[in-house]
Task: inverse folding
């Protein structure tokens, strides 16, 4: 074995050991391996730079960035409504299909991030019964198209680096669709095995929020209970303010009238919840248009202390609208605009275009600035425009010669120019770790092929497992990739398994495409561990899950998914012989 092969093998063993046995972040392990490869002369700066600027990687980055705008549309509101109506099997089916279809066009991690808040706000079912099915549905949906998941784009980068034709947009669709249908048939009955963790019991400091009923509101003339305002999760209708007085406490059969001001107690997510209820106009609604929320604390020296929002002319003075106020556990009385502000009050703000939290004036008024993950929704007109623009980009990539990379770049510029997203949004969402991991993984995969290490592995495999032939090798590559995905991460699994699969295809003299797709689908088969796939990890703490919760649902799903994929792989992508 040459020194190049020995060095590459040592780096691979170090990465796998670090991922499995330590808590070192994957980004540090992959970055360190790429650094060692560069310092030892295994790769040049030109090759390293090319790997970090691969078209598929840039496409992935742009998809993640434009998803900032997609998350602010009313798509998540629609999903929240679907998760609020019907029995659990019906909700799982609707949630699974909608999240899977979204994941086919938007990176599945971004889909889950944007859906978590909607699932937490649903009015009927415990989030812990919905979040793991959401993650699994997004994973299944990500296998429908080339851009559905980062893994697909990374595998495509390996394909292009190997000199093979790039994968098509719908290359994985047939097998992905079959896996999705089979997966939903497992998710629906097995979701009953998930625990019910009711977030209502979690202690939280309540914010005061206010909404008004317009004269044409569909809520008018119906009772509180009929309008579903008694079944809101983590949001409580405390008072109704009318011209003839205040109604408190609010009874379920209290009718709502035009002009009523409804005062709620809830958390930060309640801002989006109230925006999603048709017929309610949130306090400051006319100035809300997709901005990220900011949390501030009123200073002891603030000039607004003792004044109400109206008296302080808050919006005109600071170019920001207050949508929620919190004062410890104290119950605040009166409409939101009529509450005198005290030092220590926590305000949730919707910033305007000229709002600058680094200005001296604001620093004198507020002692804490905390950017929140929650954001307001875009107006319906802008939501439609954002979605139409994204569909146009995908359509142009499918129907015209324009690469999707060009379309996404132009679309991102339009979003910035129109103010739909800001530079702060891009800084907050820029996937630094993804870029480093993928760029380093491409480098390692390239070194495995160039050094001859993957060919050596392939020869050993063929000599050891001669009975199975090419079909046995295909199954083995898939199962190896699946195992690596559960032990480490999906992207790392693809990086380690692709060179072996490609070398096996060359060794058997067959078309590499079945092996490429085995790696692609195997790397997305992370269902029995919260650590193998980012979407599983995203819902882990939110749903208050334990490892056994993933096993209950993920193990049968993994078995059915693998059976479907391994059955269809040699049918859709035959193991045809190719000329040497």
Result:
């Amino acid at each position: 074995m040459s020194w190049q092969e020995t060095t590459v093998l040592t780096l691979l063993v170090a990465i796998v050991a670090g991922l499995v046995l330590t808590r070192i972040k994957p980004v540090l392990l992959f970055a360190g391996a790429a650094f060692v490869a560069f310092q030892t002369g295994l790769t040049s700066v030109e090759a390293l730079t090319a790997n970090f600027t691969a078209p598929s990687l840039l496409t992935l980055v742009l998809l993640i960035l434009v998803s900032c705008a997609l998350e602010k549309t009313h798509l998540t509101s629609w999903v929240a409504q679907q998760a609020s109506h019907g029995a659990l099997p019906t909700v799982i089916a609707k949630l699974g299909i909608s999240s899977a279809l979204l994941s086919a066009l938007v990176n599945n991690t971004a889909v889950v991030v944007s859906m978590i808040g909607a699932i937490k706000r649903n009015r009927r079912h415990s989030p812990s019964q919905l979040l793991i099915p959401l993650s699994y549905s997004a994973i299944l949906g990500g296998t429908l198209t080339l851009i559905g998941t980062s893994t697909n784009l990374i595998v495509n980068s390996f394909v292009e680096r190997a000199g093979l034709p790039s994968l098509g947009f719908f290359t994985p669709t047939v097998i992905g669709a079959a896996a999705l249908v089979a997966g939903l048939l497992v998710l629906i009955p097995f979701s009953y095995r998930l625990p019910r963790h009711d977030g209502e019991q979690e202690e939280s400091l309540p914010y005061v929020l206010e909404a008004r009923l317009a004269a044409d509101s569909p809520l008018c003339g119906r009772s509180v209970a009929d309008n579903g305002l008694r079944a809101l999760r983590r949001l409580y209708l405390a008072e109704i303010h009318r011209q003839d007085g205040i109604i408190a406490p609010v009874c379920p059969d209290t009718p709502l009238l035009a002009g009523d001001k409804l005062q709620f107690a809830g958390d930060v997510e309640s801002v989006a919840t109230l925006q999603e209820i048709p017929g309610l106009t949130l306090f400051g609604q006319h100035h809300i248009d997709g901005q990220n929320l900011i949390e501030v604390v009123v200073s002891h020296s603030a000039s607004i202390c003792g004044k109400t929002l109206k008296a302080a002319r808050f919006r005109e003075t600071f170019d920001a609208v207050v949508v929620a106020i919190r004062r410890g556990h104290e119950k605040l009385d009166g409409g939101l605009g009529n509450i005198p502000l005290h030092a220590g009050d926590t305000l949730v703000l919707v910033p305007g275009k000229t709002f600058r939290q680094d200005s001296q004036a604001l620093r004198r008024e507020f002692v804490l600035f905390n950017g929140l993950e929650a954001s307001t929704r875009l107006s319906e007109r802008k939501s439609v425009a954002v979605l139409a623009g994204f569909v146009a980009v995908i359509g142009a990539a499918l129907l015209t010669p324009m690469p999707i990379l060009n379309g996404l770049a132009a679309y991102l510029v339009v979003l910035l120019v129109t103010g739909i997203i800001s530079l702060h949004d891009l800084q907050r969402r820029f996937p630094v770790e993804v870029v480093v991991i993928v760029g380093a993984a491409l480098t390692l995969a390239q070194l495995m092929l160039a050094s001859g290490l993957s060919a050596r592995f392939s020869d050993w495999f063929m000599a050891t497992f001669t009975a199975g032939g090419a079909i046995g090798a295909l199954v083995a590559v898939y199962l190896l990739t699946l195992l690596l995905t559960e032990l480490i991460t999906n992207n790392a699994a693809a990086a380690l398994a692709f060179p072996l699969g490609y070398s096996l295809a060359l060794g058997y003299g067959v078309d590499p495409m079945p092996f490429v797709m085995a790696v692609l689908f195997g790397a997305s088969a992370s269902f029995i561990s919260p650590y193998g796939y980012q979407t599983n990890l995203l819902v882990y703490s939110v749903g208050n899950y334990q490892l056994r919760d993933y096993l209950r649902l993920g193990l049968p799903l993994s078995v059915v998914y693998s059976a479907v994929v391994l059955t269809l792989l040699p049918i859709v992508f035959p193991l045809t012989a190719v000329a040497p």
Remarks:
- The radius of gyration is 27 Å.
- Strands lie at 207-213, 235-242, 245-247, 261-266, 280-282, 292-298, 320-326, 346-351, 366-375.
